[in-house]
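Support reply, case 0932

Customer input (verbatim):
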Amino acid sequence: MAEDADKKAPAAQKRPKAPKPQVVGAKVSAGKPKAKVAAAAVANPKAAAAGAGAKVKYRVNAVKAVSAQDREADKQSMGQVRKSLVFLGGVTLAYLAYLIFSGQMDMFLGSLSQVDSSWILRGTLCYLVYYVIGVSAYVLSVITDPNSPVGVRDLMSVEAAGVFFMNLTPNGMGAAPAQIYRLTRAGLSVGGAGALHSTRFIMYEAGEGIFAAIMLIFRLDYFLDSFGDFIIIGILLFAFKILECVVLFAICAYPKFFSSIGNWVLRFANKHGWVKDYDHWYQVVNNQIMEFSNGFKSAAKNKGDLVGVLVLTLLQLGCLYALPWFVLNAFGKEADLITCLASGSMLELLTSAIPLPGGTGGAEGGFALLFGGMFGAQASAGFVLWRAIEYFLPTLCAAPLLGLRSTSGESINHRFKRYGARLHRLFSRGDGGKGSGGIKITFK
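Our regenerated output:
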């Protein structure tokens, strides 16, 4: 029955069976041909030859690709999320208490009643575009691999995990293990998942640095005139981001050098009793740095795709940094988009510098500093609406997407080519239809 079904399956959905994903370090033994298969080949050589050359649709057993370490890291991330929710609940209650006891509650509610909801809807759609571009950047990273088992819904889950755990874990530490876990669950090997994630991470960090540099070039005079010497803090944060990108690229270029430095630091810290989980950090220094480097070097061979991912990342960050502009327009304030993009970029640098869930403290202080003058008396209401469409609503919407799974088994590369062939045939028929009509005249 299974063989008959495979013969009847359309050719576009068939492809060679992919090898089972292997965990790095696992022992792999050569498989022995089964007796029944050999007997069938002897009995019917023509059928065996046809079966050998036929393309067969496959499904990856993703359960075997997920290591116990990945599952444990994902569980730890969820534990951090629960603690963060309690913390954020306390922060919300403290903010409400501040509005009540400071006498600003009436002004706060009055400001919210004057909001143009259409602009809030546009801001929400802008964040949706941010999410779609993030998924597209992952798609561009895997679309050239015809054997990649990762589907679009898998990548939607990966991007949603980045949003969810970045918002709800201190310094976003839970995002990386959660995303790698979902990539291995989709069928990638541990090394392949780490390579894909590391490339996306480096491009995102580089995009933040490049975007901030562009905004400082266009709006440095505005920052100096509006904030004076205080903008030096923002410039230092920008310099730290650039330094972080340089270190990441250096690790990718010289992994052995940084592993040797890491081992020396690890031995020194362990000698003084500063390391709690020595085995974990030893693996990070000696294995994960090499995987991180090899993954990025492999992706860097396709320079066109890497540049494409960087461009998409810049567009994605633009959607995120533009959200205060939508909120300002919702209150009827005139605002310059470039100035809002520059201030939004600086605000995100301030927020990410605070090691608390959602950058609590940095978000409030940064918003009051950079956008307080633009909002005036409506700054408190403006902050709440900005935080709603930039933080709370995306976090709530990302939670149901964490469990998305692709089930077709067909790679994005094959699907893209199939759709491209359909479009080509459709346009070819259209051209043929136009050329086939009318009177044909032949000159002899």
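We compared this against your earlier run and they match. Two observations from our side: Residues 1-65, 435-444 have pLDDT under 50 and may be disordered. Residues 63-90+130-406 form one domain. Please reopen the case if you see a mismatch on your end.
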